[in-house]
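FORM 7B - TANDEM STRUCTURE REPORT

SECTION 1: FIRST PROTEIN
SEQUENCE AND TOKENS:
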Amino acid sequence: MQESVSIELKNVSKHYGSTLVLSPFSLTLDAGCRTVLLGPSGCGKTTLLRMIAGLETPDEGSEIWIGGKNVTGLPAEKRQIGFMFQSYALFPNMTVEENVAYGLAVRKENPEKIRETVKEMLQLVNLEPYADRSVLALSGGQRQRVALARALAIRPRVLLLDEPLTALDALLRHKVREELAVILKQLGITAVIVTHDQDEAMVLGDKIVVMQGGVIHQADTPKNVWDNPSTDFVAGFVGNSNKLHGRLENGMLHFGNVKIEVSKLAASSKDRLEKEMNGDVLAFFRPDAATVICPNGANHCNELKIPVIVRDFHFMGSFVRISVELKEQAGKLVKVNMTEISPDIQSGCEGYLAIGAEDLMVFKG
């Protein structure tokens, strides 16, 4: 494989006419790093990927550096980038071998070199027995691997993947994403991957760039994005967290008629609130960080206990998801994942939503 290189994005932004689709930002992606662009549809992920590829032109003043060279004005075909499209874009009239060889043939590489490279790529993705088979006769996972092999065959300095697993069914996605993660790690190639799926981001990425509305909210390791979200959007989006509206008053957080001391929160939340005396707050917690307990359940001083009404149960395999309604906010539903549930917890019963103070991710509202 080609030696891995870094990517530097300096003051990059993008307008379509008068519409700003990517706010100005700077970001460095280390050589050999697998970076995932994560966010909801329309957040600017694919636009950013296409600008790195040279398929979109950034705004004036933007700079894109690859391997220490400014490639902002360089056309796509001269950037030595492999691009794997969401639809795979395979040639249906060609065999697996011919698809993988296509980029090399266009470059008029030596036929012997093409044969050696194609063989190497098919070995890499475990498709050697399928070399002479039409791509139309392959499964979705096999087509995905053909597209990956074709992108890698040209020896790119950077590999870009746009929603590489979207076309697969749920069961196959789980299997193929593990295979893809192993292949990318073995190669050590600098890779940028677009996805809206949080599980894929966690499996595939050394770094996750969380985006929303054309803004980069956080660029960090998967662990830090999960444990220490930098904005309220990241806290709510990553982990499908629940959101509570509250008030900060003289060192106490109030959620309706219940309250808890700011001093009991995790350090990151305390740091965000340390200079605030009063004001609105947003608190987030993940479904598996809370429990539903009976009215006479144990009371711990480091827990926030909110009165709720149990509304529904959903068996999810390894856990049960409980939907509860906050008694003080009619219609406000919160989801909780529990592996063990008291027999007293039934649909329609009243109880408490118990959340450890350290599991609350609190931001100024």
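SECTION 2: SECOND PROTEIN
SEQUENCE AND TOKENS:
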Amino acid sequence: MALRSAPVLLLALVAVALWEGCVGAFSHSLKYFVTSISEPSQGLPHYVIVGHVDGQVFSSYDSNSRKMQPRVSWMEKVGKEDPQYWDRNTQMAREEEEVFTRDLVIARTRYNQSKGLHTWQRMVGCELRGDGSKGAFQQYGYDGRTFLTFDKETLTWVAPDPQARITQRKWDALPGYNQRRKAYLEDVCIKWLEKHLSYGKETLLRTDPPEVTLSRKIEVEDGMETQICRLEGFYPREIEASWTRDGEVWLQDTLRGSVAPNADGTYHYWLSIQIDPKERGRYRCHVEHDGLPKPLDVALKEPKSNLGLIIGCVVAGLVLLGVIVGILVFLKRHQDGHRAVPTSEEGSNSSSQGSNQVI
């Protein structure tokens, strides 16, 4: 389906990057996302390259600036070690821009779409996983759908749509083309990933442990309660978290959020579970992360009793009532006494009258 507006296009580009970043469990990754747009608007470039290391944008190129540029301070080290690095990559990006523009026109023709906003994308990258294994991928997409995927084990391209099979047969038939793709993914890409990790080790190789907090919400209808375990401010992105009951992982009635980035480069995550409050003591939020010296098992806290608060409020209310009654009694007595005492004028008259009567 064609994208119809610039904001939707931006969301699509972000969604692709986030989706790729969430696939697989690995320690470090190098990925490039390349996009060509048929009808850019509102100042958007028609061609963009964005490079990511561990989800962090480190370099980019677009058809407006026509320059490959660093996006993080630690990439300045590359230019010092290799003064031609940025010029060389700029030239390659310009050449690829022309190829991508032609490819987009061909893809539109294949799908009989001569007008409208359309995208042609390439996603390529490699991984160094936590268990020491390596991974890699390369695929092309048209309008957000998979067009071609490279299988480096069989050295062939996989085409899900009939429109892509023409390209599949063409690339599979090119002498040495698929072998070069595999060599890049398994060798060149991994070496550059290791270089980037050495350049940005202060940022990319740090470990910030998660801050774990628990909160609860009572369901009025059935008396059940929802417990939420929140994990904040951790890095790197990989984290293992689960609810356990009696020491065993408990998946029933469990919901999970997505690991999402914070503005400072760290990540946050949450998972919830619905339980019977009477069984609260059986549950724990179990967390494993590189920033923790050992796994955490955070117990659910029993809610504090309100009895003391209630008693305190009752006593305070009785004291306040006593004070009010005392003030009212005092005011009433003061008022009655005030009425019983004559004024000086009335006393003079009564005294003279009384004296006359006595004489």
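SECTION 3: OBSERVATIONS ON SECOND PROTEIN
The first helix runs from residue 6 to 22.
Confidence is low (pLDDT under 50) at residues 1-26, 305-311, 340-359.

SECTION 4: SIGNATURE
Preparer initials: ____
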